[in-house]
Amino acid sequence: MSFFEKASRYAGLMMRGEPALLKELRETTVRELRYDDMLSGPVVGRFLNMLVRISGARSVLEIGTFTGYASLWMATALPPDGMLVTCETNEKYARIARRFFERYRNEMTEESCTDQKTPHTDAVHTDQKTPHSDAIHTIADPNRHGHGRRAEIRLCMGPALETPWPDQIDFVFLDADKEHYPDYYERVMPRLAPGGLLVVDNAFWGGKVWGCSSDLQTHAADVPEASGVHGGERKTRDQDVPADQKAAAIDRLNRMIAEDENVENVILTVRDGLHLVRKIR
């Protein structure tokens, strides 16, 4: 086991326990799907939860739902009138997400000991580019049963670049098709509120971005090769897109952010790299 794998395990042990339903969702994803390495994991999930809570965000956009694990972590940090919009193209993944969104809503409503039950509703969009959307009300923090905090989750099926987004967003989590990362950034930033946060997952892409940087070429021997959950031969859902093309797109986005005078940023060496961006103006 590498240092980074040991560090990841240790970090997981040294934080509050993963809520039972989220643990079940993670285990279900590993059991039912081939691409289980696409899960954010408990450490990243808790980190996203804390960022949403600390930032005071009221609206969250998630690009790339997968099975809804990160969605639930972020929704739990929103205020009662908050909303999380999450975009997914794969119906197989979305079916699992819907199942756990609904279970989370029902189970937490029952445990909240309040009369404020919120029925399931379907949000209908007339935009033909967005064929289906689910609006589901959830209870907020899975570790705070009985407090009755609620936020709405809207699952939108279809390409995220063609999906209507809120005019103003406080927090964005990007973890979708890598070749479109720069396009997502260009569309997100005008909508991100001043002081808003963007978190980009897979900023390192298993170490493949090293080869895209001329600054690293002369020091290639000093750059460790990622492995396991941190990279290596990754299992991804967009196998038809060459790995070097995805790495180039991620590297391009990292550079776009670094050169953008309207933001401040830092790349955290958590798992496969989390690029944290704050909009200044």
Notes on the protein architecture:
With 281 residues, the chain is of the alpha/beta class. It has helices spanning 3-13, 20-32, 42-55, 69-75, 91-111, 181-188, 214-217, 243-259; strands at 59-63, 82-88, 132-139, 150-157, 169-174, 192-201, 263-268, 274-279. Strands 3-4-2-1-5-6-8-7 form an 8-stranded mixed sheet, with helices on both faces. The longest helix has 21 residues, at 91-111. The model is unreliable at 109-132, 135-147 and 226-234 (pLDDT under 50).
Strand share of the residues? 15-25%
In terms of structural class, how would the helical and strand content be classed?
alpha/beta
CATH superfamily: Vaccinia Virus protein VP39
Give the helix level as a range of percent. Answer: 25-40%
The CATH topology: Rossmann fold
Main sheet strand line-up: 3-4-2-1-5-6-8-7
What's the CATH class label? Answer: Alpha Beta
User: Uncertain segments of ≥5 residues (pLDDT<50)?
Assistant: 109-132, 135-147, 226-234
Shape: globular
Largest sheet, strands/sense/barrel: 8 strands, mixed
Give the averaged pLDDT, no decimals: 82
Provide the gyration radius in Å.
Answer: 18 Å
**What is the H/E order?**
HHHEHEHEEEHEHHEE
Number of helices: 8
Compute the number of strand runs: 8
Terminal-residue CA separation:
43 Å
- Quaternary state reads single chain
- The CATH architecture comes to 3-Layer(aba) Sandwich
Counted up, domains total 1
